[in-house]
Amino acid sequence: MPDLSRFSVLPSSTEVSPNVAVLLPCYNEEVTIAQVVREFKDALPNATIYVYDNNSQDQTMTLAKEAGAVVRTEVRQGKGHVIRRMFADIDADFYVLVDGDATYEAAAAPRMLALAKENCLDMVTGLRITERQAAYRFGHVLGNKVLTNLVRALFGQGNKDMLSGYRIFSKRFVKSFPALSAGFETETEFTVHALKLCMPVGEVETVYVERPEGSVSKLNTYRDGVRILGTIINLLRRERPFLFFSVISFIFCFAGILLGLPVVLEFMSSGYVPRLPTALLATGMEILAALAFCCGQILDSVALDRLENRRLSYLSYPAPPIAEEKARE
């Protein structure tokens, strides 16, 4: 018989991805990061904790390593850049995304994860519940409600807390998410992405508390609110171009009618057009209205093709294995 001893089975170089990955984007969170890592290690003992440092100038990286987290860096400033990097680098069945400021309830993670597993959900949002004004200021509450209701009106019935930084995602969601934003407006992208692809989503109430003393928030109510509103408008243009350009077309058409109607009535009664500049302006408005309407129709076909491709990309990833096992039972 031939000597087969020289043939050995080499261990695979491919690492088995963790079932659950906890993702913590951080920027100068030395006051809270060790506490957050320990709390999530206790809540999800089998998960791998990843801390992505975004150019912190304090001891965030050192304290995260000492607490037992896997620490990596992203040099481009902004939460959106960090999330884009995390989603590209890490492979898991479920992803727990949470801020590193110790304001979210780590004990809610098992409940959120159980809901995602049992119902094969692609996104579960932590619905913030608090009675502490210092934790959730009136301006933030009002802005969140206004922006959330605006998205629900434009894109469909989504979750009730669009700007929550506490979420669980499936692999299908993460690997099909385009991640085009750079800052805190990325939460808006999460919601619209799920709504446009008709993904199954859910919510779990979680306790929300204020930052501990010494920890400073990076949020700016008015600046970030304007940026999020701009993101919603941009997403409307990109995802629902027919509606977006139809509104523009209506504005131009209405303005043209207001300007041109007196000129037309005067021409019908006298046979003259004494206000020629007004007549030309009204004509230009109506031409712009027609062009905007045509652009909306053309871009709507393009958006439909993009949506089909994104849906196929989403379907190329298998459903969570736990859900499949449950289905077989």
TrEMBL record:
Keywords associated with the record: Membrane, Transferase, Transmembrane, Transmembrane helix
Keyword Membrane annotated: yes
Residue span, Glycosyltransferase 2-like domain: 22-173
Coiled-coil positions: none
GO molecular function, one term: transferase activity
Keyword Protease listed: no
Pfam families for this protein: Glycos_transf_2 (PF00535)
Domain of life of the organism encoding this protein: Bacteria
Family matches, as CDD domains: DPM_DPG-synthase_like
Membrane-spanning ranges: 242-265, 285-304
Cleavable signal peptide: none
The protein, known as: Glycosyl transferase family 2
Organism of provenance: Acetobacter senegalensis
